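Worked Example 4.2. Consider the chain below.
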Amino acid sequence: HAVLAAIYLIYTEGHTATCGQTLTRADLSTEAIRLGRTLGELMPDEPEAIGLLALMLLTESRRPTRIAADATMVRLADQDRTHWDRTLISEGHELVRACLRRNQPGPFQIQAAIAAVHAAAPTAEATDWDQIIALYDQLYALRPNTVVALNRSVAVAELHGPIEGLAALAEIDPASLENYQPYHAARADLLARAGRRDEALDAYDRAVELTTNTVERAFLVRQQAGL
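Applying the procedure from the previous section yields the following structure tokens:
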């Protein structure tokens, strides 16, 4: 499973580059998917290898819509879903269904299932957040860490509103996420939506401070300026 984790690290660096002038690095994402396909062929009976490939394909399907024509970053909720890659989504869904039939759930398979729920929604408003929260609960049972709890809090906010999302976020030890940029970015967004402007500004300051990708930083600065 260390090999799977290494491939996924390559993919995530390609999906959102740690630093630099571009949000993504297609060369890394393409290589990770190639390695994932190879691994799936070598380990056809390993459901987590299939789950990893499904996760990468479903995530990759959104690549064309993550950057606007003016080179700015576009949030998942604001992406033009008609331009998501339907071929990748179809293959990803097929792989997720194959994983479900095996009934040997693992972290990559559950993350792929979450990505599949997003991919199945024709609009952001149509997203089945109940299902996503249930999957995060399942993922947390297998891998109880603060990043999973953070992602679950964001899903809670989408279903029940920013106040509930902040309450879920407050249950996570903040010290464990002090240097984790997505925590501060998510918290800033929820505080802004909850009308807690001053706290949101502070949270955006911390998120911007921790961001080393220039496209992502510009997005956060714009969000903060909107307050």
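The mean pLDDT is 96. The chain has eleven helices and no strands. Compare this with Example 4.1 before moving on.
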